[in-house]
Each structure stands twice: as C-alpha cells, then as structure tokens.
Amino acid sequence: MNFPFYIARRYLFSKKSTHAINVISGISVIGVAVASIALVVTLSVFNGFHDMVASLFTQMDPQLKVTPVKGKTAPADDPILTKIRRLPQVEVATECLEDQALAIYKDRQLMVKVKGVEDNFDSLTHIREIIEGDGQFELHAADMNYGIPGLGVAYQLGMGYTYDESLKIYAPKREGQLDMANPTEGFVEDELFSPGVVFSVKQGKYDKNYILTSVYFTRQLFNQDGMLSSLELRLKPGSNFDAVKSEMQQIAGDKYHVRDRYEQQDDTFRIMKIEKLIAYIFLTFILMIACFNIIGSLSMLIIDKKNDVVTLRNLGASDQQISRIFLFEGRMISVIGAVIGIAMGLLLCWLQQQYGLVRLGSSEGSFIVDAYPVSVHPWDVVLIFLTVIAVGFLAVWYPVRYFSRRLLS
Q1: What's the distance, CA 109 to chain centroid?
Q2: Strand, helix or coil at 19?
C-alpha cells in the first residue's frame, strides 16, 4: 500500500485535536462540490439552449447545402452539381433560388427574401411540421403560384393565414438603366396567392424575412432562368454523414461550399459557443477561490500533526514522503468534492428535465419552452471532472511545499 496515501486517508477521516480543522475540511469539500454543481448545471443549460435552437433550425435547414463560392448563383446543370446530386447516398436534392424583393399587400410593404424551392422541399425538410393554417404545403397549381410567408412577414403585412388579395412582389431588373421619370419600369412585377398557411420556425431570421414559393416563380422574377443559389440535400438513412460531406467537398473543390446545418447557422452557434466558454472560465475562477479553503485546511492540519511528523521521521519517513501525505490530503478533498458535486449536478439536471423546476416565465406559453432546457453531454462531465482535479491539485501543490518547509523544519 502507498504509505503517504494510507496516512493521508486516516488524517482525512479521523477526528482532529482541534474541531475547527474538521469543520474547515468539510467546508473545503462543500466549496469544491458547489463549484462543480455550478459547472455541471450551467454548461448543461447552455447545451440545452444549443440543442433547442439546433432543433428549430433543422425544421427549415437541409442536412447539406451546396452554395457557390463566388457570386450569388450558379448554373443548375453545372457538371459538379450534377455529380454531387447523383451520389448514391443522396436521397433528396432540391434546387433553390432566393433573393431580396419588395412585397406589397394592400397598403403595406416590406422587404423580404423570396425563396423558390422545388415541390420535393417537404421531403427535404420538416416544413409540414411548422406550417399553421387551414390549407396545406403547396407551391403552385396550374399557372397560379402560391406564396407561404413566415409568421412575422404575415403579421407585418397585415395578412392572416389566408390573404384574400394577391401579394404583389417587385424585384429590380438586372439589365438596363432606371428611368427616374417612370421608375416602375425598372422593376419586374409578379404576384403570389395564398395556399391558406404560414410557416413558423420560431426564429426571426426566417419568420420575419422569408416567403416560400416555387423555384419557377423566382427564376422568372429575378430573371435567373436555369440558375440556382443553392443545392439542398438530404442523405439516405444510415449514410456516413462526415464521409459523404467530405466526398462532396472534394467534388466541389474551390468552386462550391458544402455546409452542414451548424455551418449554415455559423454565426448563431459560434456566439453560443463563446458564451458557454466564458461561463466555463468564470466558474473555473470561482472554483479556484473555493480551493483556497483547502489551503487553509491543510495549513491547520500540518500544524495539528506536527508531533506526528516527528514520530514519522523517527520511524524513517523522509521529508518527501511527509510532504506527499499532505498533498494526498488536499487531492482527496478535491476528488471527493468533484464526485459529490458532479453527482448532485447530474441529479439537478435530471430533475429539471423531468419536472421543469426552474421556469422561464410565470405564464404558460410565454416562451418557446416553459422551463430552462437542459442537456447533459458526457464530454462536458469529463471536462468538469478533469478541471476540478487539475485546479485542486495545482492549488495545494505550492502551499503544501511551502508550509512543509516552514512548519516542519
């Protein structure tokens, strides 16, 4: 058996001559445990919000999106795009064309993004799950083109699920000069009709800006016949996502970007990662402060066991072994605090997941979710445990060596 560890374990759990040492040791364990609980709960809440936002975006964003590196559009019959869409792992491929336009409904107007998609868009995304109204997902019927606005667009234009008048769409002509004497001649005008539904992603980026329609309509509106702004893809179940994405990027070369759902919303998720990192750093500083209690506990223990040290020396223990006794003491406090804290943190996360103990608002339906979302990621738990152990070990190393030299000489 490791001699310093054996003695340190007896010192940790035995009754000291001064009761205050036991109290301070207990406080040290509690301090480390509380900091560990805070790390587990806080990082899990950040994970919960991250996963919740990701689930919202996945209802509208495709698994993979191929976009041109230069310019807004590319030929739909580009051999590179044809090769990508014909990969055996691709189940659904949709040509999309989107650009900004002016939408006018009755006496209201709004700058919007008109996104044209193919009829199989509902097979590519979960659009049918986020539409509201009395109609159904439909992009056109005969020569009539339908427009499905985001909930925010419908609200700003004063439309309901069904708008009784046509929605006028204006896009600037790409050729020729604008005649200021007759500015309306510089725009392409077309109209969309209501299929009786609106979509709601619960994200302002889409709900307040987008109108979905057929790709044929947008090609005519923006004078982009045979062009696309993105090729959106869904893979067959069981496909190796990373391998397929890598293969697509090799085919695309430096002409096209191949982005997954997280990369399509890179700004949003990067901000969330930075916020999570900052929270982790701040809580680690709090953990360091909690570890100062361990230093106080060890210094008092060294003084309390001064007579024992003399006995150990007479029995042949070296100064290095004696120092290691108190090092093990501090490390055991860190480990015990980490284990208790992580276990309590995981318990609180489970209770929040099951019962929603901490609410986001006082009334139901005020937010997308009623209680703080929580998601425990195993690697976060490993990181927290390693952080607590590392901070605890570093916190006791120098003080133990210093006090050992000064008080045990």
Answers
A1: 34
A2: helix
Distances (CA, A) of 286 to 1, 33, 93, 128, 393: 35, 12, 50, 47, 15
The model's pLDDT over 148-170, given as tens digits with 9 standing for 90+, comes to 999 999 999 999 888 888 999 99
Rounded to whole angstroms, how far apart are CA atoms 77 and 92? Answer: 17
The CA distance from 57 to 267, in Å, is: 13
Helix (H, G, I), strand (E, B) or coil at 238: coil
Give the tens place of pLDDT for each residue, 372-386.
899 999 999 999 999
For residue 359, list its beta bridge partners: 371
- Overall size of the chain counted in residues: 409
Q: Considering just the CA atoms, what is the radius of gyration of the chain in Å?
A: 32
Amino acid letter, residue 51: D
Q: Is the pTM of this model over 0.85?
A: no
Query: CA angle, 262 as apex, 272 and 116 as ends, to 5°?
Result: 125
Query: HSE-up of 21 (CA within 13 Å, CB side)?
Result: 17
Backbone angles phi, psi at 96, to 5 degrees: -130, 145
